[in-house]
Amino acid sequence: xxxxxxxxxxxxxxxxxxxxxxxxxxxxxxxxxxxxxxxxxxxxxxxxxxxxxxxxxxxxxxxxxxxxxxxxxxxxxxxxxxxxxxxxxxxxxxxxxxxxxxxxxxxxxxxxxxxxxxxxxxxxxxxxxxxxxxxxxxxxxxxxxxxxxxxxxxxxxxxxxxxxxxxxxxxxxxxxxxxxxxxxxxxxxxxxxxxxxxxxxxxxxxxxxxxxxxxxxxxxxxxxxxxxxxxxxxxxxxxxxxxxxxxxxxxxxxxxxxxxxxxxx
Length: 265
Prior knowledge:
Blueprint: E1 10-15, H1 17-20, H2 29-44, E2 48-53, H3 56-63, H4 73-96, E3 102-107, H5 109-113, H6 115-130, E4 134-139, H7 156-166, E5 171-176, E6 197-198, H8 203-207, H9 221-233, E7 237-242, H10 248-253, E8 260-262
Parallel strand pairs: 1-2, 1-5, 2-4, 3-4, 5-7, 6-8
Antiparallel strand pairs: 7-8
Pfam family, one: AA_kinase
EC number: 2.7.2.11
Binding site for ATP: 14, 176-177, 218-224
């Protein structure tokens, strides 16, 4: 059945903080370089790639010597501003090694919900894709706060699903620190088994999501199930897979049974 994924052309790839950092929270340059190489190669194959990248707050926190994710709103905004600049600098360096042009796009939730802003965002993203550019998207944390109604996505899983809706993507791939949805938390229950395919997102499936977010990240399996649900509304397939080795993207697009496939159509 995963042969349906072989023809995916427009693909949104979301990578989480845990997949971009070492266990101590420092940026994993090896993983970022390999991600740039794989995404560039997919772009060369004729795929239209959009990357939603987490890690700004974590990267900014480490740069100023914090050992854990800040809790105060102002500190989250400040570390996001610091970290976003560092992340883009690193991405630019690695993508440039493969002559791949990238672009930064920062969004707030109102851009998705306001018809004029929504169309402007679409026009920009479609123009970038037409030019062969890989847009790198993150939430605009500096102005996106819970205190401003309608401005915040809350997590990058939800953001990536809404971006997939925005561009009418064929496939959403969520790379994380676990290789899919299990019958129970495999870090606690060794008898838990991987669910390879989800045809319908039922209350029982939603109940399997248990947040296991990393020290510097937000999200867990619950937000990924929610993202898959949002994507399915637009008939977009979703695959949740382990992001330790970004070559898993090749396996997914070759129809191999890796991760959990949430059927979109």
